[in-house]
Amino acid sequence: MVNHISNEKVIEVENLTKKFGDFTAVKGISFHVNKGEIFGFLGANGAGKTTAMKMLIGISNPSSGNANVAGFDVHTQSDEVKKSIGYMSQKFSMYDDLTVKENITFFGGIYGLSRKQIKKKTAELIEELQLGDITKSRVGSLPLGWKQKLAFSVSLLHEPKIVFLDEPTGGVDPITRRQFWELIYTEADKGTTIFVTTHYMDEAEYCDRVSIMVDGVIEALDTPKNLKKQFDVDSMNEVFLKLARNIE
Asked: Domain ABC transporter: where (predicted)?
């Protein structure tokens, strides 16, 4: 699985901290992500993973520490960070009342693509996803699985170095989840870095490396194979449960 990864670090995080008054949501985390890596960022609700991701994508200022994303400092160059990444939020972000084609055109414009580029990208996307006749359908009429695959593809229109996916397969059936991960693998093979949060522990098995956050701290970080060996278990779900018990 790891043959798509290079030694180039595209995310570097050092002692990154986020405080809200007296509460510290993210407590001095440090890690790096390589180009082309599928990096799983896991944790229970309230663990701090969403807060950490918001700092990395340039929409929340760190209280202290440093982070460099796609070659830009999140403190001083957040606008450049935003231009260099793709982002797919947990809540579906396409416009339901626009057609598939209209959504692609709209977001292509937001990403600064020319009409010629948008036309080319639209044709490629339609062929890649085998959208065919549904390009004139309103997005609101599509099944959730199609919406998610479309949202992922649209987040890649401007060919970002890194794509951040926040719970991308929430609520979809197992077959669609597997198809979605095939799209992720295809993109990683092109050299795109995938930073993904998920609460499905079986999906952690699909990642090249996995970070597990508990109460604002990264408590474990390694390949799924090494983590299972370290905790002497057979699945990532068991890793998570054993880690939680050890901390308690």
From this structure: 11-240
135 neighbors 100 (Cβ within 8 angstroms): yes
Residue predicted with more confidence, 18 or 166: 18
Report pLDDT digits (tens) over 31-69.
Answer: 999 999 999 999 877 888 889 999 999 999 999 999 999
Residue ranges covered by each domain of the chain: 2-222
Show Cβ contacts of residue 16 under 8 Å, excluding neighbours closer than 6 positions: 26, 28, 29, 30, 52, 55, 62, 64, 65, 66, 67
- Distance CA(18)–CA(60), nearest Å, equals 9
**Cα 203 from Cα 187, distance rounded (Å):** 17
Q: Can you read off the two tokens belonging to residue 31?
A: 């890690």
Beta pairing class for 9-20 and 64-69: antiparallel
Task: Quote the distance between the C-alpha of residue 139 and its chain's center.
Answer: 22
For 95-132, how does the pLDDT look when each residue is reduced to its tens digit (9 = 90+)? 889 998 899 999 898 888 899 999 999 888 888 888 77
Confidence of residue 147 (pLDDT cuts 50, 70, 90): confident
Tokens encoding 47: 């663990």
CA dihedral 106, 77, 30, 215 (to 10 degrees): -60
Q: How large is the C-alpha radius of gyration of the chain?
A: 18
DSSP 8-state assignment for residue 159:
-
- Three-state SS sequence of 168-196: CCCCCCHHHHHHHHHHHHHHHHCCCEEEE
| Structural fold of domain 2-222 | Rossmann fold (3.40.50)
State the pTM of this model. Answer: 0.90
